Amino acid sequence: MLFSEKLRKEADEIYQGIFRHPFVEGLGKGDLDPESIIHYVKADFEYLNAFMNIYGLAIAKSTRREDMAYFHEQIAFVLNGEIHPHNNLCRVAGVAYDDLKGFPLPPTADHYVSHMKSTALTGSMGEILAALLPCPWTYYEIGKYLMETVQPKPDHPFYEWITFYAEDEVGQITNELRRRLDTWAKGVGPDELEKAKVAFLKSCQLEYRFWDMAITKEIWPFSVEQEVTTS
Ligand SMILES: Cc1ncc(CO)c(N)n1
């Protein structure tokens, strides 16, 4: 069994939990609370900015030009592609996307970003790939799950969101990340594999919590000034 297949098996409980999460259910039913959508988009815009930072850290650690080209391409996808599902969410919530940019990360999103950043700074290439993988992989599976269970028509409020993540492009991104991780896994010992597994599972848990964060509109306990990562 490939390393990524083993990871997927270990994380199955988390994936199943994500498919049944109230936010994902709300995407399928089309009845999400607009305030939860807004909370999610604010956090996700900054999360995706941090994701690009992490690809940059991966480039800094790359020793092969081919790896540099790969991470560079992935940055372009986040930069230009993921605005579409965000625009869909904003339209349904009745807000302008620009008004949701530049907010500090809520605790869970901050935790997720810190996990990926520290992995990128201190971990091996395999650990970095493992920490990044749940991002496209859980969304790709959510997209496919909603396509199958809801079979949305173009007039479904989240048609664009669902079809974006269920599309081949996100599938290919997931498969390429898996392929790279599986290639890396063939050349390392059990200790290295264990560390990558831990990084992967933590990202899966934090994917689940990211949806919770949106439903509960999680905030910091005190409203003091906070760092904003981008403008
Ligand atoms: C938190 C999170 N995970 C995954 C994706 C998919 O790219 C996203 N937009 N946000």
TrEMBL record:
Catalyzes an amino-pyrimidine hydrolysis reaction at the C5' of the pyrimidine moiety of thiamine compounds, a reaction that is part of a thiamine salvage pathway. The gene is tenA. Its EC number is 3.5.99.2. It comes from Radiobacillus deserti. This is Aminopyrimidine aminohydrolase. One of its GO terms (cellular component) is cytosol. The lineage of its organism: Bacteria, Bacillati, Bacillota, Bacilli, Bacillales. Residues 9-216 form the Thiaminase-2/PQQC domain. It is an enzyme of class 3 (hydrolase). Keywords: Hydrolase, Thiamine biosynthesis. GO terms for biological process: thiamine biosynthetic process; thiamine diphosphate biosynthetic process. Homotetramer. It comes from the Bacteria. It catalyses: thiamine + H2O = 5-(2-hydroxyethyl)-4-methylthiazole + 4-amino-5-hydroxymethyl-2-methylpyrimidine + H(+); 4-amino-5-aminomethyl-2-methylpyrimidine + H2O = 4-amino-5-hydroxymethyl-2-methylpyrimidine + NH4(+).
